[in-house]
Design brief:
heterodimer, A: alpha/beta, six-stranded mixed beta sheet, four-stranded antiparallel beta sheet, 10 strands, 38% helix, B: mainly alpha, MetI-like fold, 12 helices, 2 strands, globular
Amino acid sequence: MREVVLKIEDLCVDYGKKSILKNINVTFEKNKITAIIGPSGCGKSTFLKSLNKTVEEYGGKISGSISLNNNSIMNMPLEKLRNSIGMVFQTPVVFPFSIYKNMTFAPIYYGEKNKEKLNSIVVENLKKACLYEEVKSDLNMQASKLSGGQQQRLVIARCLTVNPEIILLDEPCSALDIKNTSHIEKMLLELKNDYTIIIVTHNLAQAKRIADYVMYMEEGTMVEMGNPDEIFNNPVDSRTKEYILYMKN
Amino acid sequence: MKNKFQDNLFKLWVIISGLTILIVTIGIFSYLLYKGFKVISTEFIFSSPKGVPLGTEGGIFPAIVGSLLSGLLSGLLGGILGLCTAVYLVFYCENLTIKIYILQALQCLAGIPSVVIGLFGYSLLIVGFGINKSLLSASITLTIMIIPFISIRIKKALEETSKDQYICSLSLGISKSYTIVRLVIPNAFKYIMTSLGIGIAFSMGATAPVMFTGAVISSGIPSKLTDPFMSLPYHLYILVNEGLSVDMAYGTAFVLIVIVLLINLICHLVGNYEDM
């Protein structure tokens, strides 16, 4: 049975007088990966950032309704909301501390002081992000010294430390090589057992490989959504068809 | 052919400009060091001005201490206010109009001649509030002068170094204040210290603001904030303007430059402590 975790109704986002997202209605299923595709500037990242209200930090204004497990997030405290819906950005932004301190930054803020508990949070989440084996001997190393792919996995692991229900990923592999991209894809497929994942990607092959659902966006609206087979082989809307043909060529 | 000639001409022009700046800077420093070094002695550094007229003999110790105290106090006040202003502008001010007004105000403040700031400090603090001509009133006046330099530099540093990290921290549900105190400020610490060093150096070199508000021709080391004090730039001004001793003036200038360089170096080292 489909279990909807996130329900979006008539979502609009404006930056000043400019309307970026227009009346988006969509639902996201629990423990599934949904890939959002579409041309550059169509509002994919803005849509993702609106789901945990990060868009407001950039001056965006949200209207409409977003419900997480049937509870509206519109008046939910930001701390609680972002604890439930974590976000990973396109460029891996590690904090200017050690790997260990990156991983414990949020748990310490949320009141965790027990050293053993903190250690287990670090190990457990680094393992989930398939990074532990590579860094276990030097957790006190500056995080900025990791490679790009490792930094991106660290950022995902850091996001997991607050136990989110949903993870939003904004083109997490756009700056990575094939090997690191494959690492991340493998990790996402494992993570979906515990989390709901929404990922923005320009890489249609990646969407095909990992997504359970694909959502196509254009000019600030959601054009259609379906499973990868439907969207890539038999799209309903001509705009989706054109985009996929264009990307294939 | 013509393009290549233009390229070479442009290249020559920028090289000459760069070298000119370098030569002028080295020239000024070398000349001051050469002329000033002759009068430097333990007595000059560690004793009070003597002779008739005062300042033709003896040393400049009270002026060194006075300048250091006024510089550090204004740096402390300017650092706190400048950092808070920068944090407000970068992370809290959501109204663009207010932001523009504050930035314009800072730019206007930076453009006000120091003698006018000195006059303002005198009118407000000494005439208006009845504070003595003192270390306190001079430091407050100097603070007004250096705030724009400190806040604009820190604002730029915060925007360039920490904005992405700030957003990432917020996306973990962490509060703004915790993020700023535990992540943003430590991350920009080296830039904050450099800005502070420049602010302190700027305030220590200013003559007009302290002349009206706190510096005197002769005094001991101030024992409290409401005491008047001697200041290196004002002492230098008196030595030259009254024709007392050009040699002593060069010695004073030498000491002032060395202290300013040392403060910049210390701020730089403190800022880079973790990197080392």
